[in-house]
Structures are given as C-alpha cells and as structure tokens.
Amino acid sequence: MDLCHVPAAREKGWYLALMAPNVKGPNYAWLDPSRLYCHPQGLQDCVADLLQPFQGDPIDMVAGIDAMGFILGAAAAAVLQKGFLAIRKAGHLCVQTLAQPYTDYSGREKVMEVRTDAISPGLRILLVDQWVETGGTMRAAIELVERLGGVVAGVTAICIEDSEGGRWIRERYKCSHCIPPRLQPRFDHHQ
C-alpha cells in the first residue's frame, strides 16, 4: 500500500495493511508497525480507534512506553490535549526515578524507570505502547504507575495479544487495541 493512498471505505483497522513483516530474523518482532506511522491518515485513524473506548473517561495524562510507545502515546496526548510522560528503559533519565524489573517479549530481563515527580496520587494515566505480546513490559509500566499512587485509566496498543500476560491486563484494566476480532487469532499466532 502506498503511503499517500487513503481507501474510500475506512473501516477499523484498515491501516494494519501498512505494517511490514519481519525480514531480519528471530531477534526482531514479527511485524513492524513503523510504516503505519508514516501514513498521515493511517496514523490519525489508528489513534482515533485506540482512543474511542475512552471517550468521556477522566484521563489526566498519557504515558508512552519506551520506545515505540512514545509515538502513539505522544499522538494520543496531543489529541486528548493532555501531558505526555515517557516511561523509559533504565539508565536514560537523569532525575530521581522509580525502577521496576521485568521480562520483555524476547525473554530478556530488563528494568523500566519513571521519574518520581510526574505522577501524584490519584492521577489517572492512560498507558500506551505499540504492542503487547507477553505483557511483561506493560505490566512493569502498570506497577510503576500504581507504586507512585497513580490510577491506570486504561491500556492501549495496536495489538494486545491473547497471551497469559495480555489476558492478565485485559481482566484488570479497560483496554483498547486496533485488531478486528476476526483477525485476532492471526495476530496471536504471528501470521
């Protein structure tokens, strides 16, 4: 699909066709959404679909997860006219932080950090990432927000896979993603 073409009928998820499959091997995610971000209407429709379930919900701030969650998170914050908080991998913030260890989708042990002065008790945070595969990264972000007294207003990503971690998140938090139900099994099996 070319990056200028906009289909006449734009149903939810039409922009998923803009994503490219992994051609570099098993050390990379199975699908790359970054081309979707280059398409102006695709990006706008993706963000609108992610935010639609939260219309009218009280949201005080949007937090994006390092690194690709920064793109969708900042776009969502701009649409909602809210501030944006970057939740970072350890070692990137030069201020006082709170840290949370986690295991990412590839099985690697990592640490996530958030600045301690951005979340006050009761602040309602919408958490945004590009993808929730095993749920480890998102769960670490949830734990950071809650340890600082914030409230997770919702969780949103292009895809929340039907993994053990994805189910844990869906059972506890209001969630939104872009995958139509008929396509969910294909995304869960990385097809």
UniProtKB/TrEMBL annotation:
<protein>
    <recommendedName>
        <fullName>adenine phosphoribosyltransferase</fullName>
        <ecNumber>2.4.2.7</ecNumber>
    </recommendedName>
</protein>
<keyword id="KW-0963">Cytoplasm</keyword>
<dbReference type="Pfam" id="PF00156">
    <property type="entry name" value="Pribosyltran"/>
</dbReference>
<dbReference type="GO" id="GO:0006166">
    <property type="term" value="P:purine ribonucleoside salvage"/>
</dbReference>
<keyword id="KW-0660">Purine salvage</keyword>
<dbReference type="GO" id="GO:0005737">
    <property type="term" value="C:cytoplasm"/>
</dbReference>
<comment type="pathway">
    <text>Purine metabolism; AMP biosynthesis via salvage pathway; AMP from adenine: step 1/1.</text>
</comment>
<comment type="similarity">
    <text>Belongs to the purine/pyrimidine phosphoribosyltransferase family.</text>
</comment>
<dbReference type="InterPro" id="IPR050120">
    <property type="entry name" value="Adenine_PRTase"/>
</dbReference>
<dbReference type="GO" id="GO:0003999">
    <property type="term" value="F:adenine phosphoribosyltransferase activity"/>
</dbReference>
<keyword id="KW-0328">Glycosyltransferase</keyword>
<dbReference type="InterPro" id="IPR000836">
    <property type="entry name" value="PRTase_dom"/>
</dbReference>
<comment type="subunit">
    <text>Homodimer.</text>
</comment>
<feature type="domain" description="Phosphoribosyltransferase">
    <location>
        <begin position="57"/>
        <end position="173"/>
    </location>
</feature>
<keyword id="KW-0808">Transferase</keyword>
<dbReference type="InterPro" id="IPR029057">
    <property type="entry name" value="PRTase-like"/>
</dbReference>
